[in-house]
Amino acid sequence: MNNRYRPVQLAQHTFPWLSVQVTRVASQKVDPKLGKLGGHLCIFAERLPHLSDSQKRRLEHHGTIRRLLTKLETALSASSNPTKIRHGLISLPFGGHLDFPLLTNIAIAMEDANDGGHKGVRALPLIEPIIRNALLKGNIDYAGIFSTFVEVSEIGQEDNGEVDEALVPQSPSGKDDFAGYERYAKALYKVLVRYGSCNCDRQDQNDRHWARLRLKPLYQANENNQIPFDMLFSASPNPPRTVRFEWQHVRVFVPTSKSRRKVQWAQQLAPAHEADQPDGTDNEAYERIETLCTLIASRCGSLLCFKAAGDHLMVLRGATDLVSQHNVKHDTSPGLHLGQVLDRFNMRHGMRPVLAYILAKAAWYYYDSEWTSMGVSNDCVYFMGETLEDEVVYFCKPYLSAQLPPQGSQMAECRQVVGMIHRYPRILALGVMLVEIATGQRFEMEGRPDQWDPKTANQQLLTLQKHLNNGEFHEDCRFPRYKAAVNKCLDPMLFRNAPFNPKKPTENLEQRRSILYNEIVDPLRQLIEGTGWDDELDDIEQTALVPKPRAKTGLKPPAHFIVSEMAAPAAPAVPKGDPWLEEITVLNKMLKAERRKASTRNTPFKVAILDTGYDDSSPTFDIPGRSRKVKGWKDFVSCSPHPVDTDGHGTHLLTLLLQLECPANIYVARVTESSKTLNSAERNIAEAIRMAALEWDVDFVSLSFGFPRHIQGIREAIADAVYAKRGAITFFAAANNDGFNRREMFPANLGESVISVRGTNRTGSFEPKYNPPTSSDEPVFGTLGVDVLSDWPGFETGKLMSGCSVATPIAVAIAVMLLEYAVARPREFDPDDLKLIRTRRGVFEMFKEISVHAGDHRHYVAPFNLFRLSEDVRLAKMKTALGRHPERW
């Protein structure tokens, strides 16, 4: 069968259109049954996009959706010859042997029509009579269709989309994990403590190297009966958090058999000739060491390999052969703890329950272990940045911050304080994390749960219970099993059958750990297995976290108002999330992913911003890796070797470009102190343009300013840059710089050398204030330039800015997207095309092809419909644009 769509996809494509057709016939025929059918189609069409992947799999696995489609296909094609429909002999444009020929023709026609294709537009009027005639005949199995709709609707309605408990596999506790893992973890801790004293030169004897223990969803022994532990150690002891430092990666293999009592640290298993030898015969490959500190401080930058012979630690001599494949480079920073990650990042669907399961399992495994002397809480769980292609990326890989040996007071298991409701701080700390993960927000709490007084502890407990019951969890955390696990964490009577005895702390300890597993860990395990996320653990761990968009918070009003300000209508509030800007961020991330998959790697494109400089302490730079995108800095005003911005305009533009995840290296030239000194900055601008082209070799230059007259020096500098780059450079300039000038400014009006940028609102309408007249017959472009939030020195939550100057870097980001898309597909474009696309005319024609008309036929809005089109249509449009290049004429 030539089935283009899966059953759920077919329903998603056809039901919205079918509901309209059925409802229209029902109103003409005044048929309540047809009206009910149209209502069912409409309701289910609305619900389909909100079903989880697991619910869609269940619809297809049980055949429910296929039965529904079969009944609808039979009913709607009753007026025509089924054989003709199947072979496309009734003038339907899309033929082939199909399971659901009529529905598939509808789906293909709808998809083609939405992409702007003429084939689909012509096909739909041919299909409508078939549907109408079948509905008017009335030979429809309404009872069968309605009963199938009931079956379909039952999936996803169990408590807001939770998995049916009966379908979640029941399995023995910890069946996938190595039994007794916690014992070997304790043994490893003792060995590390013995060798963990710091002997670095000029260090205090109490100094310690920071340690991070990787927390995993699955702990298993390998074929040599060894359990692997992944760890990170700071190369320097007690490094200041403001100083960048190196991390030393180690992998620990703890033997589980008594005949092979050793601990081996290695990138992979020992060579076969060593592993097969009896104990004591492989010691020639190892060298005994005195301190772990000496090797960690060596900053070798690759995996260290050790083994423990009894209570002794030994290093593997042939380590270079084993570490050559180790290519993970960690960012030189302390990492981000869970609370910071929740503040700054979003997680893909399924990440949250998996992370909750990992942390719950860690709390169970290390419940009475020195590894968790400070407890398992959001400020002890870290995520470490990994450097990929000069960019810092955070994945769903939690680490536990450990102290070797423990320092300070340890988190008590039980606090028998009068008036305190929940007396088990370790369990309460786990509950806090599970609620934070489910809601995606960090709770501001002073101190750890074991430090709270009774009043604070009781208030926090009530707050957590409120969050549990008010339904604000993310969709993938709304399952009954997740809520049950959280509820048990917040239950003061969890250990009623295995109470804590302060005189005998170890009494009933194993029973409490068993309760912790059965009531909290196991429900989360069953949840991720029932949803299928356990099959995606590798993908989830390799999927990057997505930075959250900046919150759109308005500025505080002044303390005093004049009468006219009080009477003026209030400006419309900016939405908390800006879908317009978020879309370009998502698309840029998509292009980055495709670029990594490409067979050939190209150097990133380069963008130069000429403005008032930038402030590198702005909140945008709190996201690790963003500062790395800025590759060059030059101050033509005060010759400062470090970034500076005494105005704020340049900071706003640069951080906007960074927040859009523009896949380019950025160079910043400070050419003026502020807009007031712009008229005296002509020489600085000319020098900066030449430097950008000749030294920085940039592909794009962003000029968010303008002059009312032509400046000969700047015009010559642009001409020199275009000549030096052989045309492979594009200048973007603000058409009228915040709208304070009445006509198009220089250099935006240079024509062939520069692309002029105007400002639009979020609906794509050109704002009169930011749309100056032009004497040229050439099309003009606009993009978002109204109420755009970005950093501004002195404004904690950023500042809203409007104008062509804001639209300019957004237009640059779109241009970079276009070029990234093309170069990631070298087989689709001729080498000459890839050269043309780098020119100003090439970019201009591409903009014209992907943009849409807005009012005047010469006005175009540059949105992102290029990336909403099908692959074939998208490539065809780009090639059409390149075909209009003058060199093709």
TrEMBL record:
Gene3D superfamilies documented for this protein: Peptidase S8/S53 domain
Superkingdom of source: Eukaryota
A molecular function GO annotation: serine-type endopeptidase activity
Span of the signal peptide: none
Active site: D611 (charge relay system), H649 (charge relay system), S805 (charge relay system)
GO biological process: proteolysis
Entries under InterPro entries matching the protein: DUF7580, Peptidase_S8/S53_dom, Peptidase_S8/S53_dom_sf, Peptidase_S8_subtilisin-rel
Domain Peptidase S8/S53 per the UniProt entry, residue ranges: 605-821
Entry keyword annotation includes Nucleus: no
Domain DUF7580: 182-526
SUPFAM superfamilies recorded: Subtilisin-like
Keyword annotations from UniProtKB, A to Z: Hydrolase, Protease, Serine protease
Entry-linked Pfam families: DUF7580 (PF24476), Peptidase_S8 (PF00082)
Family: Belongs to the peptidase S8 family.
PANTHER family attached to this UniProt entry: ANK_REP_REGION DOMAIN-CONTAINING PROTEIN, PRION-INHIBITION AND PROPAGATION HELO DOMAIN-CONTAINING PROTEIN
Designated name of the protein: Peptidase S8/S53 domain-containing protein
